[in-house]
Amino acid sequence: MTEQQRKIAATIIDCRRTGLFCLYLSAFLYVGSLLPKFAAFPEKVAVLSGSSFGFTLLAIFFYWRISRLKELD
């Protein structure tokens, strides 16, 4: 295994970890937006939903990046 292949493998592992973290965080924030306690505060629901959507997009980006890096490997 060459140095470049090791670097690509390490980057794939980092992207996978970061993507999973973003996915878990987006699920946590989405569940938080469903709680009836925050229904009286629409701005909080909007922030939670927007953050959840943003982290979901980040997770999709990292999984796309992993697929591109696997093509290089």
From TrEMBL:
Cited InterPro entries: YrhC-like (IPR025418)
Superkingdom per UniProt: Bacteria
Bilayer-spanning residue ranges: 21-39, 45-64
Keywords recorded for this protein, A-Z: Membrane, Transmembrane, Transmembrane helix
Pfam families: YrhC
Keyword Membrane: yes
Protein's name according to its UniProt entry: YrhC-like protein
